[in-house]
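Please review this one:
***
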Amino acid sequence: MTRNSLLILASAFIISCGSGEAGDSEKEDNATAETRSSGKKDKKNSKFGQWETDQQGTKYREDYELKQQLSGYELVKYTRTDGGQYGGSSSTTKFTLCSDGSLKYYYQSLTTISVEGAGGSNAAEDDDYGSWKAIENENGVKILMFKSDKHNNKGYLEIKPMGSKISMVWHDEWQEFLMKKVDC
């Protein structure tokens, strides 16, 4: 009887240890699944940088995926107003977004007026340089953030990529800019 009792106790001990191992194995499987799950979340979030706050208290984070889409492109807007026989105007605006984060800005305009016996024209040109970031604010709005080295200030333009064009809020209205691949 003592021998049978010992066998029963030994069997119970082995079974309980085995089920404990299964429990540990199950815990390891759950931990591995959680790690895989959080790894997916990390990969999803890796397209963004850390949250930052600007001087006005607006939260934003860098959008690496959007930056990759826009890197090495020049955003160009050509406008022309035909004034018929009395003149007209034209302008060109360019934002060159280099893949190293540097920015070039160029603006040129020409306006001509012609009336009986008199005429005139006005030309303007401006350029700037600095850096750029593609960011997303806390509301999910995509924005280009520019920092001017020439004027030492920042500017923000809300954007919507549209294939070979990009729509940006420029002078308080949505305007389309062509996207032209450049080498910079």
In short: Residues 52-181 form a domain with the Lipocalin fold (CATH 2.40.128). The two ends are 89 Å apart (CA to CA). The beta strands are 52-53, 59-62, 73-82, 87-97, 102-115, 118-137, 142-148, 153-162, 165-170, 173-181.
